[in-house]
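Issue 218. Parser rejects a valid record. Input:
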Amino acid sequence: MSEWERSCCFTGHRRLPPSQLQIIQDRIRDRIDLLYRKGVNTYYAGGALGFDMLAAIAVLNAKAVYPDLSLRLALPCRGHDDKWPLTQRQILLRLIDRADEITYAADTYTPACMHIRNRFMVDRSRYCLCYLENKKRRGGTASTVQYALSHDRIVVNLCEDSTSSQDRLRSSPYIG
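Output the parser choked on:
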């Protein structure tokens, strides 16, 4: 199995419904478990607030059970978190410290650095776990999901209503 076949990326909204956080965390954990049984052990996270951080934390937590998991942070640029609240910046620093690899799409911010980061992650992954609300069909998450689908990636939407929207979202087989 190639590295690409053993890799998964994450993409999702920065703002998540507070009432759904535990459910989202559980779904991420369950998918990591399922994918691990399928041979997936490398995960790419984009280092953004919200879903990206939940996913990266879930990978690090799963390493206690599956020590061969690898967390690779694909960050848009150095200092992309400069205007974040201190607690969120501290979480990102801990993620950076514990990640197995860190890649920057650019040294400084450019209008394209987020887009480049997102494609970098999809290009290296067979699977894409996302949190995409049905009503949000524009923006970075939607664009990344569409890019993944157009490149025949296996996309799983962990959004609360993903079961009903799954057939509209994907063109590749649903895992699990």
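Fixed in the parser; the record now loads. The longest strand covers residues 70-77.
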